[in-house]
Protein 1
Amino acid sequence: GAHPGMAVSELLEILKITKQSLSRVLGQLIDEGFILQRTDDTDRRRRRLYLTAQGADLERRLTDRQSQRIADALHEAGAGAVDGFRAVLRGIINKEDRKRVAPEHPIDPSGAE
């Protein structure tokens, strides 16, 4: 994915969920071969996560499908709705996390890249 070697603690921070909530799902993804978990080289208490080839393929297929659905919906809604939708989405994000959002990638309602 976009962050190979992400620590479990970093993923928990991004998802804003508890370790218990992540544990079962993460374990299933590891067991099914989508994610590889390794101990950190410098801190043996930290676990690092990596997508396997199977996991990367799943991520690509899901992302492509979701991106197309979003592009179709934005195209249908039109430019005015896109600006309002963007404002609502930014409002949902915690203020301290908004810096992670990439404003330099505007949404094109036509679906063009």
Protein 2
Amino acid sequence: MSDDNNQLNTAVTPTPNPVGGNVSDSTTSVPAQAATSTTNTVLPDVKIPDSSPQTNMQQDVTTPTTSTMTNPFATPQKPVTPTDVTTVVTSPHAPQKYGGRKVLATIFGVLLIVGGVAAGVLLVQRQQNISERAQTNVQYDAQCSEVIVYDQDWNRLSLADLNGITSGSVVRFAVVGASSSGNFDKARFTINGTKTPEVTDKKPGTEEFYYQYILPEGVRSYTVKAEIHHTIWGWI
């Protein structure tokens, strides 16, 4: 073919000679086939295997099933089954080991307390009944006579006579007891609400205990109460 035989003509511009001469024109002929082979050189295609690290990394990132990361050092957890859930819910309501004994002990203690209180009430009522019966059956064989008033000379006076006696005068309040057994050893008086000291003095020749009293100024009425002490029965 004529095209295959074409040649690439390259014109070279004359270059001045450094010595002063001229370089002669020259024409270099390069075969067209060599230029074409150099220009049309094509590199072979390089195919990357599918198992490359880049392809695997992209697949791990984009695939949802492999995106979850797990800790290899984590303790495996036991799966929860319906039986386990039921056990957890009902376990707080299970009876304790010694609950029945505690309940029995508590009931027994309450019964003891109630029984003790009831017994105490019965004993108190019984003692009260015994005391009431004893007081009812007791009959004092002693008695106290009415209060007797004397002047300083042992003249007997009435309470009404005291109104005519001037204040500062001395009177004697006396009392005597009677009993078939035992003796009287002392007496005491309450005059207008004021208790006097206990006395053991007796009117001469008698068993009358007396208290000597000075009539206060401005008092015109008197209320006198007398008690006599028996050696067995006490104060009467």
Protein 3
Amino acid sequence: MEYRLIPLAATGFLLAGISGDAHAADDATIPQGRETFVTYCAPCHGPEGAGLLAPNLTDAEVLHGESLAEIIKVIGEGVPARSMPPWGGVMDDVTIEATAHYVMSIMDDNLPSGMVATPDTTVTPFPFGSAEEPYILRTFMPTMGVGDEVFPHHGNGMATPKYNAKGGTFDIETMQDPIDGVPGAIAVNFGENLSYCFDTTECRILYTWQGGFMDMTDYWGAGQGGQRKKFGYVPTVLGNLLWRTQGPAEFAGKPRFRGYRKVDGAPQYFYEIGDKQITLLITPSDEPGVAHCFYTVTDANGQTRSFSRFLHQNIEEDAS
């Protein structure tokens, strides 16, 4: 069988032509896989897999090889050379396998690419929301001076051989340094008064800012998109940094992000830290630039407590 390798920018996935038999999957796992795909993969690949920031996955091809095991490996371990984060720290093995089955099930659907701009597109590299309709973006984010002690569950990136997109090979004599940024972050904008960055690996809010939201030009391209900057995955934060987390996390244990739901347009996060199940809803307070955080914490005995906090400015000057 002859394979044609095609790189997927921003994900590190490779595509290879396969026979229809490889699409066979356990039907019971596909709905679970789709749910996970919509939560974690859709921000880049689109809700139907037809591409958004990352390429179309519905072509008649399969990710990074022909076997389910290879797809599972790519999802779980990521591809550092292409800045695709590993999802093994977020999903368990069953969830990863279900997601791989779902991805295989949409191959050969040949949906129109979601990355194609139309004359009446509203795409802009300067997204913006409002208090009534918050803008939620799953993306890479800059660290903005957050200390290393905040990231104990993140891996340390290392230089990797340069990837040759045309040949589908790696040049072991040319090394590329890792990109400095937070993978798998969620940035939310409520308009000029408040934006924040939440890290789904550590399951904690990293920083807040006021003013603009983000400049996505390097990642999305200028204007209606296209001609993006090579390796420009980390956007530029616009505005003034107000609050930044520091020190170890409040609760001990390994964090595991479970997803979020929208409450009046704002994401309410669900995650676990150790034996505690936690929800967090972040909204603007009555004071401009101050985030109001609503927590519920349920311990191993089923006891739940609720509390809230205000994140007042703790930075004297803009650290960007």
Protein 4
Amino acid sequence: MNTSPMKSAQDNPDQARERSPMPGPRRAARMPPCSSLRRTGSFAVALTLAAWTCGYATSASGQEDPAPTTGLRWTTVANGNDPVPGPGAGNTFNSFNQPSVNARGLVVFRGRSRGGPPGGEPQSGIFLRDMGERAADIHPLFSKSEPVPYPNNVALPPDQHPAQFIEFPSIPRIGIRSAAVATRGNHDPVWNYTLPDGSDTRAGTTGIYVTLDGRGNGAEVLTGASKLGAVPEFPFYAVPGVGGDATAFDVFPGAPAVTDDNKIVFKGNYLDGTPKTGVFYRELANAEMGGEANYVTLIANSDTPVPNPGECAPGTSFGSTAPPSAALDRRGSPHAVFVGLDDEADPLCGGIYRAPLSPAPTLETLVGLDDDVPGEAAGTRFGRFGEGLSYDGRFLAFWAAWGDATRTLRLYCPADGSQARRDYCNNTGEYLGEGDPNSVCEPGAERCYQDVQVPVDQGMFVLDTRTGELLRLARTGEDISDFLYWVYSGLVPGTAPGGEEDDEIPRWRSSAFAAVSSRGGRYRVAFKASSGEPSPTDTLYLARPPGEPTLLTLLNTRTPGPLLDSQAPEDSVLTSLALERDGFRGRWLVISAGMGVPGAEEEEEAALAGLYITRVP
């Protein structure tokens, strides 16, 4: 992930799911210019909705909507003038991920401070602020350099301290109506034990960490899932459904979801003769390790047949699963939704599936690659689905593409962030001639590039899982050119894991961003899209049901900064927008936004970023 002040995160795809910068005390966080934020790794950077702040909305065509929107106020959740609470408090925030929110206005986010003199190492952690309570403080839930919760029996030099968190590599997520919060954490190995051959070893460098009540109230910090499944003392962390000796998960890609009835739902990769993947859940009790009687349960994995094989041979199993979302339905029954495909790169069968969170669940196909695209000619089938599903227990919002037409998009290697990753992408430095084999490096060019094929026909959709009605909210065309945003991320070969990256080789990854919320059986979907070339404008839209103005522009990268934040430089405009799948709950919509003064000589003094929240009628 980026280590520059302005960052992005994709919950995976994840949520890549990165972050946006925040300014220092009376000085602003450094923000890259708008052009550098475009498709070069900063897509988590920041998102906002200031159009309503000034009392109007615009249509998708950019014209002012004739019906002014009133009663919306934007409130700052955090910005660079706020000190980072927790261990070593005193430094101010410098960057953060896209936030998540519950229906009561509890906001959770990943944030970090600057590093270097005089403040020392940068602080980072997972934080919560109750925006439903006037003047509530920001408080830490998980912090870098704090001890990892049990299991943790190591004693590290020089002072024999227990293993500590190193980084939190994905966005945190929160229950829709509860204060349960889940996140991933990377750290030093947490457990010393003896192998059957008598040798000593250590294990456990990553896991999913949970508090069942982020407001405090006596809730423990729990290890919900861990890379300790092969340790005899912790069989409840093992990969279920694997024969022979207990098998540990290798990594938990993306951002884990958490339900109101205290279940974590996550993607896990593991080795069972060959690399495999799957979607799993675990019910947690407010007890050490979440309760030793609560084992990880399988939802679907690489051995699960695709329910709707379509063009695949009968019995074809999933070759790819995506990080899930989860929620309770109207009866209070928890369900997970996820994308599963036979082949991620070139799928022939698969779709979006729902499963009850119960043992041996039956998968229900919600939308498949063999289904027709609404609004298109009969027989036009879906071709791809985005991984980032937003689900509130009834409505499901997602990105999809169809058709064979593509256009070429040239992606240049990142100009900032991890030096090792930049060198790997550019085939230079330590990775001269041994870097990314897909990069094209022309003589004399400062940066290498890769050309990717982007679907011409894309859209945002919403499905009512109760009635089965599937609607297209928007598609590429005159007003929208793209819904996809790109980040170059992954763990560079030869570097140590434990930081912000997943244990996967660096590559360009794309994500689309949408969040759904419903009240009284009527949905609202916020989503991000771009328009115009070669300098595209990013826009945050709100889609509403038929019978209402169906597509409103809330904010774009031409909006004046002071319309969103009173501390923004006078001549600033928004430079970046970011939204996460859990960023719209009930009436609360939370985003992150970055802004800067075009052409400013002192970039650092002319930039600002923050997290902002409003209530949508």
